[in-house]
Design brief:
The chain is mainly β. It is built from 3 helices and 18 strands. A hairpin with a 3-residue loop joins β16 and β17.
Length: about 260
């Protein structure tokens, strides 16, 4: 339910005081794929919502005769999501189309609870979820409810509300921002906890990020690693028990 996401966001406050999209979950044929991925989806990041609305979209099971794609529509979204009219699956990617266009404006991959990918025209990453979020959302929410705190790294200090927001991109004309890692942190090839791990960054690393977005399980930020992008998650559950803030929104000044 949408309410569950709002409860999770509230829990955060209480506790405080691109690669191409990867292959979609296995589908034996088109019918089973459509059954798995049709229905209602949400983009919880306010930058994709219109006004105070949460961006929502519906992927229909009705096939269009003109192009053999499936009907789709969006509500409360900004462009290009507001123009969504169709969806399909091609070469292991879920694609979203505007009315009358044969060029997808979004390429996504993932599973039945979270699909992620990019908007090629703007190079923004996007996280699209079911209303209840995914397993990561549930694990973090339960950990916060137990401890009433998100710990700053491995300390016993609780993070403030200000620590939990997205880092500002203020470097190089607003293209980058810097974050400081509090723990050794996995880098994922997509902003999903079950996405392939492409490396580990050491605590104390000052990481330059080029995009951050909000999901039901908190903030994910993207960074460039040579010719590839990778994603880091701002909240983790340590040893399946303690909710941990994994990075701060700035790096210590160089001595």
């Amino acid at each position: 339910m949408i309410a569950s996401f709002r409860s999770f966001a509230l829990a955060l406050a209480i506790g405080a005081g691109s690669f191409a999209a990867t292959s979609l979950a296995t589908a034996q044929d088109e019918a089973s794929f459509v059954k798995s991925f049709s229905g209602d989806w949400y983009v919880f990041d306010p930058q994709f919502g219109s006004g105070d609305e949460t961006c929502s979209m519906t992927l229909s099971t009705d096939k269009r005769t003109a192009d053999a794609r499936f009907d789709a529509n969006a509500k409360g979204c900004v462009q290009p999501l507001s123009e969504m009219a169709a969806w399909d699956i091609h070469s292991g990617q879920l694609r979203l189309f505007a009315q009358g266009s044969d060029n997808p404006f979004a390429l996504l991959g993932g599973n039945q609870l979270r699909i992620t990918g990019s908007l090629p025209a703007s190079e923004r990453g996007i996280i699209v979820e079911r209303a209840e979020g995914d397993d990561s959302t549930s694990a973090i929410a339960k950990a916060i409810a137990r401890h009433r705190c998100i710990y700053v790294g491995f300390s016993q200090e609780c993070a403030d509300v200000a620590d939990l927001v997205k880092p500002a991109l203020t470097e190089e004309a607003g293209s980058y921002g810097s974050v400081s890692l509090l723990v050794n942190l996995n880098v994922r090839d997509q902003p999903r906890s079950n996405a392939p791990n492409v490396g580990v960054l050491q605590a104390g690393t000052c990481l330059k990020v080029n995009f951050c977005t909000t999901a039901s399980d908190g903030i994910w930020c993207r960074a460039r690693f040579g010719e590839r992008n990778g994603w880091v998650h701002k909240i983790a559950v340590r040893k399946e028990e303690w909710p941990v803030l994994t990075f701060t929104n700035s790096c210590p000044s160089e001595e």
